[in-house]
Write a structure and sequence with these properties.
The chain is an alpha+beta fold. Helices cover about 40% and strands about 10% of the residues. It has one domain (about 5-120).
């Protein structure tokens, strides 16, 4: 297993979003070597500022931080996940093809707009949904 300092990627995801957390669970199950540091942005201890992220943007779109500190956002974040999770390298290659990439971008753009209206796993009444 990789040690905590050798993560290939840090992924920031909305753990209260049913669709988001279901997809992340698939990746987490395949990440037996601990290649990814999974960060639920809706957990009580999460601070966008401490992670060097824009709080509003990270709540709007999925982010992934590479080991060099550069960010991948939206479809680019998924492609980064696919690169490091066993069994998904093919998707990373196909996702980079211009026609497929255009479809992925359009689908993600639509999802980002409807996601706030999708059912949540939990209520935000407990205060941990505030954007910092």
């Amino acid at each position: 297993m990789l040690n905590a300092m050798s993560h290939l990627l840090t992924v920031y995801f909305d753990g209260l979003c049913r669709v988001c957390s279901s997809e992340i669970a698939v990746y987490q199950k395949r990440d037996q070597a601990g290649r990814v540091r999974w960060v639920d942005i809706m957990s009580p201890g999460f601070s966008a500022q401490a992670e060097g992220l824009d709080a509003h943007r990270v709540h709007r779109e999925m982010h992934a931080k590479r080991p060099d500190g550069t960010l991948a956002v939206g479809v680019d974040a998924f492609i980064e996940i696919w690169k490091v999770i066993p069994g998904f390298a093919f998707l990373a290659r196909v996702g980079a093809w211009s026609g497929i990439r255009a479809l992925l971008d359009a689908g993600y753009w639509a999802f980002v707009r409807v996601r706030p209206y999708l059912p949540r796993k939990d209520s935000c009444d407990n205060g941990h949904c505030d954007v910092e």
